[in-house]
Amino acid sequence: MTAILEAQFAPELEKAPLERYVPPAKPSLVGLPRAALAEALGAVGVASAQQKMRVAQLWHWIYVRGVQTFDGMTSVSKELRSVLDAHYTLARPEVVVEQVSTDGTRKWLLRLPGENGARPHEVECVYIPESDRGTLCVSSQVGCTLNCSFCHTGTQRLVRNLTPGEIVGQVMVARDRSTISRRCAMHSAWCRMAMDLRSPAAASRCQPPVWCR
Fold first, then answer.
1. 31: region left, alpha or beta (phi > 0 left; psi from -120 to 50 alpha)
2. Could you give the CA distance from residue 84 to residue 73 in angstroms, rounded to a whole number?
3. Could you tell me if 183 and 133 lie in one domain?
4. I want to staple 41 with a disulfide (CB 3.0 to 4.6 A). Which of 46, 83, 129, 181 is the partner?
5. Are residues 169 and 140 in the same domain?
6. Are residues 52 and 145 in the same domain?
7. Residue 80: its pLDDT value, please?
8. Is residue 22 part of a domain?
9. What is the Cα–Cα distance from 159 to 59, expressed in whole angstroms?
10. Shared-domain flag, residues 186 and 117
11. Please, are residues 127 and 100 in contact by the beta-carbon 8 Å criterion?
12. Which domain holds residue 48?
């Protein structure tokens, strides 16, 4: 049975994000659905007749194989890899702290990529293993409107909503550092996703290939 965390939630502290996401000069392709990948390819000169094939290649390397550099995409031409590297990244969140419980539960404090501020934003991601499945709790916001004592994110003010790529990046980090890649029965818990469903909904369109194919 999937573990359920019960806690007394404090009243909402903030109702509006304090910041807006500002994309870096070289955005990450992680978190983009197929249509957006096609647009990204078109923006760097890939002909429309080739985009469907190239999207399939990128999708496989990003979400199935989990490569973290364009050089690792060996089925993609060197010329295109060079062009992609000049305009985009495959940046994921950086693991700042990892905690592993005796029951196999893993909790990561993650630093978000592509931010130029003096203090980059950090969020938490937790993987709870079961005998026949796993539960992955990912953050959908920097900070939170609540004040849950068990959650580092909940101790912060609500700063902004995460992008689909920042959400998907958490899943990919968890897959690389646990047994998620061998589990297809999985639930994802969106922390306070009712505040804004757009990023979680977009992220969910990229998730199944991460662990099932």
1. left
2. 11
3. yes
4. 46
5. yes
6. no
7. 97
8. no
9. 31
10. yes
11. no
12. 34-87
What pLDDT shows up at residue 97? 93
Tokens of 147: 């004040």
Q: Within a domain: residue 57?
A: yes
Structural domains counted in the chain: 2
**In this structure, what CATH number is given to the domain that contains residue 143?**
3.20.20.70
pLDDT of residue 58: 96
What distance in Å separates the CA atoms of residue 112 and residue 207, rounded to the nearest whole number? 19
What number of other Cβ atoms are within 10 A of residue 57's Cβ? 16
Tens of pLDDT along the chain (213 residues)?
A: 334 444 444 444 445 667 777 778 888 999 899 999 999 999 999 999 999 999 999 999 998 888 999 999 999 999 999 999 999 999 889 999 999 999 889 999 999 886 655 577 888 889 888 887 788 888 888 877 776 666 666 676 788 888 888 998 998 888 888 666 544 334 444 444 445 545 555 555 555 444 433
Neighbours of 108 (CB within 10 A): 22
